Amino acid sequence: MKLGCIADDFTGATDLANNLVRSGMRVMQTFGTPTATLSSDVDAVVVALKSRTIPAQEAVQKSLEALQWLRAQGAEQIYFKYCSTFDSTADGNIGPVTEALMDALDCKFTIATPAFPDNGRTVFKGYLFAGAVLLNESGMQNHPLTPMTDANLVRVMQSQTQRKVGLIDHTVMARGTSAIAEKMKQLQNEGVGVAIVDATSNEDLKTLGPALKNMPLITAGSGVAIGLPRNWGLQVSVNASALPKAQGYQAIVSGSCSLATQGQVAHYKTSGLPSWQFEPLLWSAAEAHAQMKADVAKALAWAQPLLAKGPVLIYATTDAETLQKVQAKLGREQASEWMESALAQVSVGLQKLGVKQWVIAGGETSGACVQALNISQMQIGPQIDPGVPWCFAPNHTAGHLTLKSGNFGTPDFFTKALKVLNTSTKATA
Predict the structure, then answer these.
(1) Whole-number Å distance between alpha carbons of 230 and 23
(2) Inter-residue contact 85 to 51 (CB < 8 Å)
(3) Coil, strand or helix at 262
(4) 359: helix, coil or strand?
């Protein structure tokens, strides 16, 4: 294994794996740290953790366990992957996990950049942009679990780490790989432990890649991955993304309340395809658990006669105003927990009904559903949209899945994803 990766959520893991596959690496993704040795002949393994929003100490522990396993499999370089919106709680977990991994690897200096230009995430003068606006003006300031109110990554990272944080800005990036390497040496001599890196294009990331060749630890979003496989002499290959033929029924399970996913749900509904929505605002705090269970049963009963006719959408996605009302009524953490549980139970029920082609939207939703389905690993396949590939669960009846980060994908993503799978694997019902 050349590259060992630790991702802080499940959709982020497939996002990273997708970019590695597109650049020529054969990639396996695991859910949680495996207990056995690696059995597949691959170039990279991405260990997907559900650690973005848990207490920092737990996130550190889980990340160190993943690091220990990856090193035991012979990983030559470690990649800590977080979201392209750099979102985390006030206490972490990006900074604490980075520091713990640096200590374990005796790494004195590393970089940090969530830049992913293909999805509109760029870093300029240390500030993170989502499309044409600063991160804190993009809707991420309203995220239910990790609201981001500051776009200055140097400031955000410095608040989470004891190490000095510096910046490799666009003027250095424009001068090429040698200038980047020289700036890294200068910053390290100045006592900097972590450097935020500007990147406004894929060319910036490809220029950055060679400068990272001998760095024990890289921390980044998924964008930096496009510049790494060449460090091992790997080239783009269609064989890296080949998946088995698809079969079974199709279902979309959506829990993300991001603006992008709201638009995808709306687009799907305008196509006239069947959809069913959870409405937790109708639940009472005292009876919410029982009402949630009843709604799961209703959703599955609704879906059963429709699955043979085409895809169905079951969703909890809603607008920010409604979400705030639900959280005020049920409690922020409890509301999230109940909805994750509801969608996870729906996924188990849909699998029993014969679903084997899955579109799952939202990082927390993807984590809950994959864990409920008891999927331990996935083979990474062809890209649907930047950062979102099709995957296949080997030795499992779940079949093919795509785990979409809430903010990713075009408005027609749900229907497009299923068309891509049918085309790329010559799906049969």
Answers:
(1) 8
(2) no
(3) helix
(4) strand
Q: In degrees to the nearest 10, what's the CA dihedral of 204, 209, 146, 167?
A: -70
H-helix segments, 286-412: 288-303, 320-330, 332-352, 363-372
Helix axes 259-270, 413-425, angle to 10 degrees: 70
Residues 6 or more apart from 233 whose CB is under 8 A from it?
none
Partners of 389 in the beta sheet? 383
Which tokens sit at 29? Answer: 């993704």
Tens place of pLDDT per residue across the chain (429 aa): 899 999 998 888 988 999 999 898 989 999 999 988 876 788 999 999 999 989 999 999 999 999 999 999 999 999 999 999 998 877 889 999 999 999 999 999 999 999 999 989 999 999 999 999 999 998 888 887 788 889 999 999 999 999 999 999 999 999 999 999 999 999 999 999 999 999 999 999 999 999 999 999 999 999 999 999 999 999 887 778 888 999 999 999 999 999 999 999 999 999 999 999 999 999 998 999 999 999 999 999 999 999 999 999 999 999 999 999 999 999 988 999 999 999 999 999 999 999 999 999 998 899 899 999 999 888 898 999 988 999 999 878 899 999 998 989 999 999 999 999 988 765 444
User: Residue 399: CB partners within 8 Å, gap ≥ 6?
Assistant: 246, 247, 248, 355, 356, 357, 358, 392, 393
Tell me the domain boundaries of the chain.
3-236, 242-425
80 and 36 in contact (C-beta within 8 Å)? no
Residues facing residue 363 across a β-bridge:
none
Distance CA 110, CA 112 (A): 7
CATH annotation of 242-425: 3.40.980.20
Contact 370, 344 (CB under 8 A): no
- Is the sign of the CA dihedral 45, 49, 53, 55 positive or negative? negative
φ and ψ at 127, to 5 degrees?
A: -100, 135
Q: For residue 58, give the amino acid letter.
A: E
Superfamily per CATH, domain 3-236: Putative sugar-binding, N-terminal domain (3.40.50.10840)
pTM of the model: 0.78
Is residue 333 within 8 Å of residue 288, measured between CB atoms? no
316 and 339 in contact (C-beta within 8 Å)?
yes
30, containing H or E segment: strand 27-31
